[in-house]
Amino acid sequence: MTPLRQRMLHDMQIRNLTENTQYSYLIQVSCFSRHFQRSPELLGPEEIRAWLIHLREERKLAPGSLGPTIGALRFLYRVTLKRPWSDEDFPLPKKPFRLPVVLSLEEITAFFESVASLKQRTILMTAYAAGLRVSEVVHLKVTDIDSQRMVIRVNQGKNRKDRYVMLSPRLLEILRVYWHDAHPREWLFPGDIPGQPITRFAVARACNLARQRSGIQKPITPHSLRHAFATHLLESGTDVRRIQLLMGHRSLSTTARYLKVATSSICETSSPFDLLPHVEPVQPPPSPPEYF
Length: 292
What we know:
Blueprint: H1 3-14, H2 19-36, H3 45-57, H4 67-80, H5 105-113, H6 118-130, H7 134-138, E1 145-146, E2 151-154, E3 163-166, H8 169-182, H9 200-214, H10 222-235, H11 240-247, H12 252-256, H13 263-266
Antiparallel strand pairs: 1-2, 2-3
Family: Belongs to the 'phage' integrase family.
Domain Tyr recombinase: 98-271
Organism: Paraburkholderia sabiae
């Protein structure tokens, strides 16, 4: 390990960045350095610009995929190397705004019925019932289920924040059936490796297989269940601020995007077309006579 890499690693550890972020940043800087075959200390804004163009045009990365690269380079040059560079030296492409695809209650039911494994069905039901990220649901421990207070404790979710979410009575029944069948000890959903939880990739595979079995044409990922959780709460009249707390969003604007897909805010709004006086439909012209 080079002294610069070690120093950057120490800087990230001091600032308590997650292990995944540390690993991602080191990989990004390493790829950047290997591309130019020089130490990052000898590279500057022009090389950063050329690298981003290479990633977009040669590797065909989407704008949203460049975030980790720019974050890593900003950290390296501003924090570790203390270069007085501005945001313009790290151009971040504008990401297209896309609304989440939301499953209806009927589609959620059909999807769950298509999950054959009790364990996988319980995982996906927990993700939907509590609005959890896949990384949060796979890292649940048995002790995180508090049936006395009817809450689920989410330990160190995104941005290393703890929070509580509701424990659905129906979900508690399902969790008890699962517990009597699997008898998990530490991790609520243990993986194939002893002492480790199930992986996110295993949950994603089960999710994709269930979508194929259900025949639902909409794309479904574990995160789709989180989108459905927030949207269905909003449609049932839950306050946006409360949904923000349950979802663990830092910004209310992140939660407010579900207003754009909730039927309670779209379909219940009358179109001005309905206020117009009744207009008779245009009659089609008479058919020409037939001569043969």
